[in-house]
Specification:
The chain is mainly α. It is built from 19 helices and no strands. Helix 7 packs across helix 14.
Length: 449
């Protein structure tokens, strides 16, 4: 008997918000300064809109748990699909490690007392392996957590925005807003954070890997992407404004910016309220990780089972058909990183892990836009329940502009833009090179087109 599909439109909209709305990336984006608002709107129009529309077309045309890997494989063959699957997967344990660090960085703010290093490492490992365990449940089984966390994120980021508007109107702002400050400058340090805004818009394609849990994916996926995208953009702008009102740009902490901004905006609030907000933030970060892990694990398994070059361990599944191998490998890699973390001489350990996660994730999206054009060319007769409207010139523009932005963001993130960035970016460049070389090994193992 066929399993009843319980992941409906409302759940899908909340899943879009849960996946795409990444609370921990709001503070790094705010570090750009007031010009962030130009970049938010510019990247919304030039990257997010075409990317989400392309994801909606591909996700409803080729219904597969392989998602991004499947689309690229269809267009350019298994080797390119293998590269994408590798970059897409390897970013996740890096991200898990960075968020586990973020959790323990925020615990002293939440509890009001320092946390010994041994206890920090214990909390990080508990965070990681709890994620691994829950990722083996079905999407519909975890939807209650997605829904609750979406409400929590909306409340926290909305509160940041509302409090920021009130404080700006009554007391002024930490970063004076002038017409000149809103224009994009050529400050090289700020430009390196543009990749974070791109990251904040990514994840729409993750929802397309939930097709096996949805009763009507061809109808629900495009609607969920549109409504979820509107909600996500609104909440990001509110949060960025609130952080910018509260904290001078030079003092924004990428790891603790949200709680520090709320503490400043709300003034002498009761300690229990800050603790409550902190717990809600941790739940939201956990659920965001969980929602991504499900999609990424399915993509990795799909690649391993369908002629891709991912290691055989990724083929393994549980009795309820969850991707067991990918989940366990997530936990192992993230655990190694967490255990090595105390040996890394970095004041911003979260950003160190997060930056490498950014690079590998951006790399995985590079073939998406050429693949869209290629599939339109080689598979014109495929039934497309949702179709991006436009002639050949417009479609090329919608593909090549986001592709160019991804390449620029990668350069700004990895390449040292001044002498002061050498210390941080040389290890990042080395880590990125290792990830690329590993991806070529995976691609070489993949089946030939």
């Amino acid at each position: 008997m066929e399993k009843k599909k319980k992941f409906r439109l409302f759940d899908c909209i909340l899943a879009v918000v849960c996946v795409v709305l990444t609370a921990e990336a709001a503070a790094p984006a705010a570090s750009i300064g007031n010009s962030q608002f130009f970049w938010w709107f510019f990247l919304l129009i030039c990257f997010c809109v075409p990317y989400s529309m392309i994801s909606a077309e591909l996700g409803t045309t080729y219904e597969s748990e392989g998602g991004l890997c499947d689309w690229v494989s269809r267009a350019f063959g298994p080797r390119w699909g293998s590269r994408v699957a590798w970059y897409y997967w390897v970013n996740f344990p890096l991200w898990m490690a960075s968020v586990s660090v973020l959790v323990t960085d925020n615990l002293p703010v939440i509890t009001g007392r320092p946390i010994p290093m041994a206890l920090q490492v214990t909390f990080r490992l508990l965070f990681i392996w709890s994620l691994v365990g829950l990722s083996l449940c079905s999407v519909s089984g975890n939807k209650w957590l997605f829904n609750v966390s979406t409400v929590f994120k909306a409340f926290i980021l909305g509160l940041l925005g509302v409090a920021g508007i009130y404080v700006a109107a009554t007391k002024g702002v930490a970063n004076p807003i002038t017409p000149a400050s809103l224009l994009p400058g050529l400050d090289l340090h700020s430009l390196s954070f543009i990749s974070v805004i791109l990251f904040n818009f990514m994840g729409f394609e993750v929802v397309t890997t939930y097709v096996n849990e949805m009763p009507n994916p061809t109808r629900d996926i495009p609607r969920a992407i549109i409504w979820g995208g509107i909600a996500v953009t609104t909440l990001y702008l509110l949060a960025s404004f609130g952080i910018g009102v509260a904290i001078p740009v030079a003092e924004i902490s990428p790891s603790m910016g949200i709680l520090e901004a709320l503490a400043l905006l709300l003034g002498q609030m009761q300690p229990w309220f800050l603790t409550l907000i902190g717990i809600m933030l941790l739940v939201a970060m956990f659920a965001n990780q969980l929602s991504w892990s499900v999609g990424i694990n399915y993509v990795a398994r799909y690649c391993a089972q369908n002629g891709g070059g991912m290691p055989k361990v990724f083929r393994k599944s549980t009795a309820n058909d969850a991707p067991l191998g990918a989940a366990i490998m997530n936990g192992i890699v993230a655990t190694v990183l967490v255990l090595l973390a105390p040996l890394i001489p970095s004041d911003e350990l979260f950003w160190s892990f997060f930056a490498l996660n950014l690079v590998t994730l951006l790399l995985s999206y590079l073939p998406l836009f050429p693949a869209f054009l290629k599939l339109r060319q080689i598979d014109p007769d495929a039934k497309r329940p949702y179709r991006v409207v436009g002639g050949p010139k417009l479609l090329r523009l919608m593909a090549y502009v986001p592709l160019g932005l991804l390449i620029a963001a990668l350069c700004f993130t990895v390449i040292p833009l001044d002498a002061g960035e050498l210390t941080n970016k040389i290890p990042l460049a080395v880590g990125s090179l290792i990830a690329i070389l590993s991806g070529e090994i995976v691609a070489a193992r993949g089946s030939k087109p």
